């Protein structure tokens, strides 16, 4: 692994990045994000083997024991492998996740009970010079996993988007250069996305939030025209990758069609 780097990508929001050189051409970054607030939030923990370097990086900004919230986009080693290590290091910390993930996995996996968030719930991180409120947005199966969700920090307009908009290589911490082709290349390298009709709708819903910064888990964060990028990716998934919207169909035993009501 290359050295772990800490860079500010938005007001009091920090990207912790470790590049692993042999995963993809030019390497592949694993990023965590730290929100410095009255109730600090760590978004992604990294894999368990990365805990020492990620903890040391957090300590460059604030004491690890001051963490109040830990979150991640879905249940996967690079997203939450070190979650119990961080819970042990931060005695007042609690995992906040979508209700689906809490029900499916986290009630059993975690050493302390998590907080379950419904789609549209707001998590208040308190006021430490700049008030922070985080919106819970459910994105089931996008890019993968039933429990997938993202956080949108409403004050700075930062979207913590997990694996969405992934790129290969070890680029700048944050860029305004167009990431469209880089994101398509990463998709065509790993085929990480569940190629279903929910994908374009999820990207367009996130675009409607009008984020100003995309905090990307793999690759550079983005502070260009975020809504345009997200809508262009929705179009690509729909036309090139075949994620077209299917007619709504009712599940057996249910009156509500699949896809209806969202």
TrEMBL record:
Pfam families per record: ODP
Organismal lineage: Bacteria, Bacillati, Actinomycetota, Actinomycetes, Mycobacteriales
Domain of life of the source: Bacteria
Species, as recorded: Rhodococcus antarcticus
Domain (ODP): residue spans on this chain: 29-219
Name assigned to this protein: MBL fold metallo-hydrolase
């Amino acid at each position: 692994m290359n050295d772990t780097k800490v860079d500010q990508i938005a007001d009091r929001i920090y990207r912790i990045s470790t590049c692993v050189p042999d995963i993809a051409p030019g390497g592949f970054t694993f990023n965590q994000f730290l929100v410095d607030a009255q109730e600090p939030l760590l978004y992604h923990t990294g894999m368990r083997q990365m805990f020492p370097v990620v903890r040391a990086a957090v300590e460059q900004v604030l004491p690890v024991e001051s963490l109040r919230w830990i979150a991640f986009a879905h249940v996967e080693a690079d997203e939450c492998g070190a979650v119990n290590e961080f819970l042990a290091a931060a005695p007042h910390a609690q995992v906040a996740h979508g209700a689906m993930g809490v029900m499916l996995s986290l009630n059993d996996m975690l050493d302390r009970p998590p907080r379950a968030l419904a789609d549209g719930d707001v998590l208040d991180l308190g006021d430490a010079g700049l008030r922070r409120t985080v919106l819970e947005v459910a994105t089931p199966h996008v890019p993968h996993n039933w429990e997938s969700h993202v956080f949108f920090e409403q004050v700075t307009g930062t979207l913590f988007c997990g694996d969405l908009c992934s790129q290969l290589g070890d680029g700048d911490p944050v860029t305004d250069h167009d990431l469209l082709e880089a994101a398509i290349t990463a998709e065509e390298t790993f085929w990480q996305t569940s190629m279903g009709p929910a994908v374009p709708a999820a990207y367009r819903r996130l675009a409607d939030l009008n984020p100003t910064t995309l905090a990307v888990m793999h690759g550079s964060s983005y502070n260009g025209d975020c809504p345009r990028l997200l809508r262009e990716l929705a179009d690509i998934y729909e036309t090139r990758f075949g994620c077209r919207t299917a007619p709504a169909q009712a599940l057996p035993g249910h009156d509500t069609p699949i896809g209806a009501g969202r």
